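Ticket opened by: R.M.
Priority: normal
Category: complex prediction / small molecule

The reporter submitted a protein together with dinuclear copper ion and asked that the result be attached to this ticket for the collaborator who will pick it up next week. Submitted input follows.
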Amino acid sequence: MKTLFNRRYILPFLIMVLIGFGLVAACGGLGGATDTPEAAGVSGDIQAIAAERGLTPADIEAAVKTFTPTGQHDEYIMFASGGHSGQMLVIGMPSMRLLKVIGVFTPEPWQGWGYGEEGTMEILDQGLVDGEEVLWGDTHHPALSETDGEYDGEWVFINDKANARIAVIDLRDFETKQIVKNPIAVNDHGGTMVTPNTDWVIEGGQYAAPLGWEYASLDAYEEDYRGMVTFWKFDRESGRILTDQSFAMELPPYWQDLCDAGKLVSEGWVFCNSFNTEMATGGVESGEPPFEAGASQRDMDYMHIINLDKAVEVANAGKTEMVNGFPVISMQTAVDEDLLFFAPEPKSPHGVDISPGGEYMVVSGKLDPHVTTYSFEKIQSAIEAGNFETDAYGIPILAFDDVVESQVEVGLGPLHTQFGPDGYAYTSLFLEPAVARWTLGGPYEDLNSDPPWSLVTKTFVHYNVGHIAAAEGDTVSPDGKYLVSLNKWAIDRFQNVGPLLPQNFQLIDISQPGTTMPLIYDMPIGIGEPHYAQIIKADKLDPWEVYPEIGWNPSTQSLDPNATLAGEERIERDGNNVEIWMTAVRSHFNPEHVEINQGDHVVWHITNVERAYDATHGFALPGYNINLSIEPGETATFEFDATHDGVFSYYCSEFCSALHLEMVGYMLVEP
Ligand code: K7E
Ligand code: CUA
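Result attached by the on-call engineer:
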């Protein structure tokens, strides 16, 4: 063992640290100088500026509603899927400023997500698919954790449609803490949605396949292919999904699409829409109808109505079969135990959304201009009356007329519905493309709506909207105020950046009742294709400014055994194994010399001993694919085999102080 730590330079270091702090303080002081009107350069002639820029009065109003002065924070925070970037986007509203891209299924170097840091590598490894590294995901549906049906700002979940994986993100530090791979499904779609107290995270399937990723010929589609829905047990205490207390339900090989959890009156139930109840198997190349035609023949598909509370009892009683080591309630058991019912739904629907009071299930048929609303009360009566037909798999089908509350014609290509606080519902219309406002049952005196189920107005969007997200729109008490249209096409909205265009988030002001629903902001998204988003009141979030103690391990959210305080830095050698305990502080690493031999195995711990907000240090090690982001208080560990000899200048990759460029060291690998 030899110790390379050297105390001779402590005093000069302290001086450098003070210079670092002083410059940051000076910058803060300069920022304050812009507060005076003279410095801000207000001309007083807004009309002239507007005329010069060609702005209409409506443009100016939109600008005033969204412009957020420097230093002012947003009222809402949107958590949006990052689509096939595999990440999650955090966006302030109404400014529509991008605050963060959270690394989830895809490595992300700025956060040091998947570039050597041990905890992040382990979490990404939880997402191995049949032993294969799959370092991207297709994120679709973020779900904020809820308490009593209200977003509580503690956790957010997201699915990877491509590989049937679910991730858990801790909103104390906005970092991914867990990835679970669904052991029975190839891909998913109806995830993630949470039950009103986040006891269960729902993951519905999509394209049917033999459960457990087995082989079966497409000729045996009806016998061997299956759909599924998985219920992941979430434990707030540990902040983890408990895979050994989770279970799935086998479903017919219809393509389950999206799910939503019942709330209030319908709490304890789960609803999923489906399409391809035709059980089309494609084969356009051999003269068969292509999927798009084969899966669109029937007038009705089936909304799946699942008694989750009872399914939990059945699963706990062990009435499950193991598939790939995971407990699954068979379709037969689901029928025998009254866990699963169908209601016909028109026509190749996309999504099912539960109203704030839990009394209505809203379904939109992509190929039907109506939204169809079901009554939970009527569903319960129909189940009780027990007079139903069954499908080919023996699943009871409730009669459409027994369970439907209303059908409202909203327009072409209705997809997803969100809710406002005042009896309004909002539905995206992919084909028009527009967002429709309609009344959910009323009559609401202030809405003056007659009949009580009717279209109120539409706002056109640009273009081809998929999901919409309203402020607190999936809770038992939506806020209204803002709605975001997550558009798939952008065509003429932005500067041409080549054949691949950004997606377009458009902010709509829904604060006024009636027919006024103006579009007030366009936000291009240049990373992946976001599908869904959820929007939380910003004051519900209470993340840490710095990690609670020096030496914090974000992966375990506890003190790391290798936490290193100033003065404890050292390098120890045991044969070919070298272990380094390093600290980082403005503006140096300690030690600055790491001398090892080619062939050594190196384990390296770095603790950022800063307690100052935003004093993050990076750590870039050339040639070894290592880049860390070490936030104040964090201890990061990485290891590697020193296969290459030479001189490697490691440096801080965050511009942390005036002497940031000097925050460097040499790793000398002797051949
Ligand atoms: Cu409509 Cu995956 Cu929710 Cu896309 S899904 S839009
Ligand atoms: Cu630390 Cu730059």
